[in-house]
Amino acid sequence: MNEHDSVIRVNGVVKRYADLCAIDGISFAVQGGETVGLLGPNGAGKTSTMRALAGLSPWDQGQVSVAGLDAATEGRRIRQIMGVVTQHDGLDNELNVTQNLELFGYLAGVSRTAVRRRAREVLEFFSLTGRATDDVDDLSGGMKRRLAIARALMIDPEVIVLDEPTTGLDPHSRAQVWEKLAQLKSAGVTVLMSTHYMDEAAILCDRIAIMDHGRILALAPPHALIERYAGGQVVEIRLDGAERQILRDALRASGVKWRELGALFRVLDGDTDLTALQELAGVRIERRATNLEDVFLRLTGKELDDE
Ligand SMILES: Nc1ncnc2c1ncn2[C@@H]1O[C@H](COP(=O)(O)OP(=O)(O)OP(=O)(O)O)[C@@H](O)[C@H]1O
Ligand SMILES: [Mg+2]
Questions:
Q1: Using a 6 Å cutoff on CB, does residue 210 contact ligand 1?
Q2: Domains in the chain, please, with CATH?
């Protein structure tokens, strides 16, 4: 990557809350037109990182810049080119849908005529035109989320930061948001987003940063993460009559490492010889291609059960 093409640059950022290090020395860059996803367990530091970028909370060490503007001193100018969708919508319940958009536009310095036109455009873009005069309270959760993203587009941003854009949405609404984000990407908008959905990350992101404990553990394209951290296949074993303990004993005797996820036993090394298990009655063994969830569990999860 040519670092001069980077639209977002985060360099050695540290953010502390009393004794807790929410961001523990993070550095990364997002190129113009690229979509980068932050993936990590609750408390990993995703929101803290995005809030620093958006100028919503100060940090203790390091540098952050957006489009060459220093976020520590040029927050106002950054907000003119960067849309921000926070984890919680922050919509004004006293105002209707259109008023929410227009007020946001005025506050961001967009002219009166441009605000009106832009509000109509973003409502159309998010299929909310029919709701233009509804109270925000009357919208469903998914509609509110779409409105929050629509609001971030009021400034026609070059960069957009979205903290969990589709959390709580039904599959249809999520797919709608994905389509809109894909359209923004085609238009050349640079995107930094966080998500807890592995499919969303795989579909939308050019590169994914796996975060935990305020650090980036890995940053690469989805397929590269899978190749590097998850291997080719995993084996999943379900009980189909056999006792849980019998399967555990058989796995231990085979010398493999496994993880129990509810009713599922997962052996991460798909090349393991499981002949002995195949002879066991009452278990169903399936091999499947690895995915980002395997990467996530490997990098952020507990050590595999190996006793
Ligand atoms: N205002 C605050 N005061 C004190 N601690 C905070 C504050 N905001 C965040 N933290 C702590 O900082 C750490 C990182 O939180 P952050 O919200 O960035 O995580 P996250 O990755 O966004 O998690 P989630 O997936 O739950 O949204 C957590 O341990 C959290 O408790
Ligand atoms: Mg968060």
A1: no
A2: 3-227 (3.40.50.300), 232-289 (3.30.70.790)
